Amino acid sequence: MPVDALVPNDxxxxxxxxxxxxITYHYMLAKPQGKPVATALLIHGWPDLGMGWRxxxxxxxxxxxxxxxxxxxxxxxxxxxxxxxxxxxxxxxAHLAAIVKEVTDQPIILGGHDWGGVFVWRMTIYYPELIRxxxxxxxxxxxxxxxxxxxxxxxxxxPNFTYQxxxxxxxxxNAINKSPERLRGFINGxxxxxxxxxxxxxxVSIGVIExxxxxxxxxxxxxxxxxxxxxxxxxxxxxxxxxxxxxTRDLNGDDELELAKQGVSKIKTPAMxxxxxxxxxxxxxxxxxxxxxxxxxxxxxLVAGANHWVHIERPEEVNNHIGxxxxxxxGDELKASL
Length: 338
Description:
Elements: E1 13-20, E2 23-30, E3 38-43, H1 57-62, E4 65-70, H2 89-103, E5 108-113, H3 115-126, E6 131-137, H4 151-157, H5 163-168, H6 171-177, H7 180-190, E7 202-203, E8 207-208, H8 224-237, H9 240-244, H10 249-261, E9 271-276, E10 298-303, H11 310-313, H12 315-330, H13 332-337
Parallel strand pairs: 3-4, 3-5, 5-6, 6-9, 9-10
Antiparallel strand pairs: 1-2, 2-4, 7-8
């Protein structure tokens, strides 16, 4: 049986907007029938949208949760400030903490994928009182570093992050922003589309492969309706905002130094990490030894044979992991609602 998924203009979600000065966030809010047993906040990564969680939202509704799904800063209908200084984890977690407080006065279940995974670990550190449980897809926890490392230094240690050098430069965004055809090729390619010769649109050792952008065929993973929606949303503001997330290493490093000075090194909140076996940028070996960073209950899962877009490629398996984790946290509260 296919897994139920949101579609563009789905009647199960309300579209909300919240402003912080010149910055406006768009988020979807989905409410279950009856009183919600809890609230989940789902954070997407690069290059994605709130709609990236389309297979998870109906499932969480079926468990009695209400779900907040934002387009993150730089994406979709949310503002895309030109300055990368607006994209620090400290600033963005403050934005989302305020949105959470608008929606509920109870602590939440927080989940993220890719950059969203980085985000949820940091939000849990900054706002532990708001988080009842946290899970990350594909991104292990790294404690705040007492030493600032440049992106170049990180890449020397982790060569599978070499692509980030190009994304932090103007090269990738300029290549993609040149035409609507290139943007469509990029979106199809990110979701598994290939050139007729089998070429990819990105490589972890390079970044975006410009000469392939206009040759990429349809995605085998995402249907045309969702691809059209992604192209429409990314056409609003282009790729500068999304690529700004890769330009904050130095600024985030300053904030990390402060956290490290405060002795923050572990997560006390119940947590789950789900890795994808075939993720080229974030291979499962990065999760070795994670247990030492968690003082509360910690679950570690691996989705065998799955690639980076694990929650889209293998939604039933990922939903089962999320559901079991939430049930372990909410216990009798969830049983009563079901």
